[in-house]
Amino acid sequence: MAMHIVVGECMVEMSGRAEHLYYQTYAGDTYNTAVYLKRCNPNLDVAYWTAAGTDPLSQGFLDSLVQEQLDPSLVLRQKDKTLGLYLINTDCKGERSFAYWRSDSAARQLLGVLHEQTARNIVDQASSLFFSGISLAILSDDNRKQFLQKVTELKERGCRIIFDPNYRPKLWQSVEHARDYTDKAYQLATIAFPGCDDHKTLYGQADLDAVKHHVQALGVEEIVIKNGEHGVQIFSGSQHYIEPAYVVKQVVDTTAAGDAFNGGYLAARLAGQNEQRSARFGAKLAAFVIGHRGAIVEKATMADFLTLNRIV
Ligand code: ADP
Asked: What CATH number does residue 68 fall under?
């Protein structure tokens, strides 16, 4: 069966639980989306395309892929590199702050996997390919161009291209550079997940209408505009759908709300659901995830959610 591929960087996450005490796990925007996509639609073959090292932390990441039933065939292993890392600290008022060590992470070399014949065949026959603005930002300029060239080829072969701009200013050399590449990615996308916050900082667009016009002008067929607790609006062909967010009684941690939404939406969409039902499922999953600590909700807890909420 043709593979659904998610491309990007997964990092070691260290979240402060008490003074001098950190809890270690793995997370990253595209990784989170891949995990939720597979958990919600186990019938899909999903591969995570990235690069890691050969050290124990990298091995732990490979193990986590296997535990999540994500195909590890597209993980390039490099002896002299390791995963990027970030720390999350929460102050006495509950405000979180992040510190990153990712400038020389293995994932920056992810394109190297295309030198391997088996991996190249998997990529070339992909049925869908999901990437984000972060997947683009971590690459060198040369690699970014090569990657988009590959995406162009895949699109021509009928692969569904899915893009979330996820703008992180610190990862780009300038805002103009980020805009240029985000626009190029939109031009290749069949489905896109623009966030209102992202478009405000990246393009200075103040409202949802401006976001819609910008992305529509770049030719995206299915535009899913995310606007936090105000829900999503979808413009797909000539259809327009509005899907409110779910009310969350106690917001515990908003990390990965957007990633979970993407995973849930795509799980339903790739199972043949229409846009509105897919958005409803994505929103329900996002609401569930922000009611729990961390990007990835524990498997057992999530199993209860999936028993009550089915995509089909
Ligand atoms: P992104 O960070 O990718 O732009 P959003 O912050 O818009 O993503 O969140 C994605 C989805 O998660 C929303 O469309 C909504 O369904 C849900 N969500 C986000 N924040 C909240 C919230 N405070 N309450 C309920 N749902 C939320």
From this structure: 3.40.1190.20
Q: What is the whole-number distance in angstroms between the Cα of residue 278 and the centre of ligand 1?
A: 15
Per-block mean pLDDT, blocks of 10 residues, the chain (312 long): 93 90 96 98 97 98 98 97 93 83 97 97 98 98 98 98 97 97 98 98 96 98 96 96 94 92 98 97 97 92 94 80
- Distance from residue 227's CA to the centre of ligand 1 (Å): 6
Nearest to 258 by CA among 233, 289, 217, 236: 289
Angle between helices 275-290 and 299-308 (to 10 degrees): 140
Q: What is the rounded distance in angstroms from the CA atom of residue 173 to the CA atom of residue 179?
A: 11
Q: Which residues are catalytic?
A: 259
What is the number of domains present in the chain? 1
Dmax (CA) of the chain: 54
Provide the whole-model pTM.
Answer: 0.97
What is the span of the domain harbouring residue 203? 3-308
Q: Is 227 a pocket residue for ligand 1 (Cβ < 6 Å)?
A: yes
Mutate to test the pocket of ligand 1, among 252, 254, 276, 284 (most ligand atoms within 8 A of CB): 254
C-alpha span between 4 and 72 (Å, rounded): 12
pLDDT value, residue 1: 65
